[in-house]
């Protein structure tokens, strides 16, 4: 009976396993995509960013730092680079919040902006929202991709289906695509789907993402209906 209880205990904590080494390139590709989406926004609609090349240049510089210092897989010794990754994601988030604010202002109050241009501009803003929050989830869960590889990582912030489904691979650990998928489903459903937030900050981030996505879709759809009409 004691051995059975021990086995049940092991299964119960299997979701807290140390993560495998993870390649950095998926997150960098997503980051590069977010930068490209910022650059294609129309200048006549998105004016709050001032010099449009400034933030993408800073983001590009941080990407270069990450590539130079750690071009391959993320190792458990790279926790010192976390501040660079967090700063990069924060810049992308700030730029997208400003762009969303400008878009909403143009949608609600501007009489000069073309309706179709406004609707088209909402697409890269929504996609950047998905990428930015996917990066946040990936960078913050259990202390980040480097910290997750150590035995002393904090408790999980997200409960993925594989963590609680009997018969799944016991050695499974989440990678960047899992967090990006979580972000996409949260942005489209305006609520968690198969992955549940466990901590307060995870719930707060998902609430903010759902709110931003809902506002964007609601205002843009209402404007699109007027255009079609």
Which stretches are low in confidence, meaning pLDDT under 50 for 5 or more residues running? 1-14
Structural class computed from helices and strand pairing: mainly alpha
β-sheet strand percentage: under 5%
Strand arrangement within the widest β-sheet reads 1-2
Shape: globular
Q: How many strands appear in the DSSP assignment? A: 4
Question: What attributes characterize this protein structure?
Answer:
two-stranded antiparallel ribbon, mainly alpha, globular, 229 residues, 8 helices
In a nutshell, what does this entry contain?
The protein has 229 residues and is mainly alpha-helical.
Describe the structure.
This protein is mainly alpha-helical and 229 residues long. It has one domain (22-228). It has eight helices and four strands. The chain has helices spanning 2-12, 25-39, 54-69, 82-109, 115-140, 161-164, 176-189, 200-228; strands at residues 22-23, 73-74, 158-159, 196-197. Strands 1-2 form a two-stranded antiparallel ribbon. It has a two-stranded antiparallel ribbon with strand order 3-4.
Topology:
Blueprint: H1 2-12, E1 22-23, H2 25-39, H3 54-69, E2 73-74, H4 82-109, H5 115-140, E3 158-159, H6 161-164, H7 176-189, E4 196-197, H8 200-228
């Amino acid at each position: 009976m004691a051995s059975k209880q021990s086995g049940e205990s092991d299964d119960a904590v299997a979701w807290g396993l140390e993560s495998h080494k993870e390649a950095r390139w998926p997150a960098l590709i997503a980051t590069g995509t977010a930068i490209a989406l910022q650059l294609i926004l129309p200048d006549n609609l998105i004016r709050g960013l001032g010099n449009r090349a400034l933030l993408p240049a800073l983001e590009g510089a941080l990407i270069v730092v990450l590539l130079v210092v750690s071009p391959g897989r993320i190792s458990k010794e790279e926790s010192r680079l976390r501040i660079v990754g967090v700063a990069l994601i924060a810049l992308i988030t700030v730029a997208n919040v400003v762009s969303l604010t400008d878009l909403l202002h143009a949608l609600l109050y501007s009489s000069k902006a073309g309706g179709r241009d406004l609707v088209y501009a909402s697409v890269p803003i929504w996609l950047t929202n998905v990428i930015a929050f996917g990066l946040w989830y990936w960078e913050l869960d259990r202390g980040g991709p480097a910290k997750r590889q150590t035995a002393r990582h904090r408790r999980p912030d997200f409960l993925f289906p594989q963590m609680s489904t009997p018969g799944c691979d016991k050695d499974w650990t989440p990678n960047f695509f899992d967090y990006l998928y979580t972000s996409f489903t949260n942005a489209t459903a305006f609520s968690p789907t198969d992955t549940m937030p466990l901590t307060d900050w995870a719930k707060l981030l998902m609430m903010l993402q759902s709110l931003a996505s809902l506002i964007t879709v609601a205002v843009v759809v209402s404007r699109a209906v007027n255009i079609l009409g």
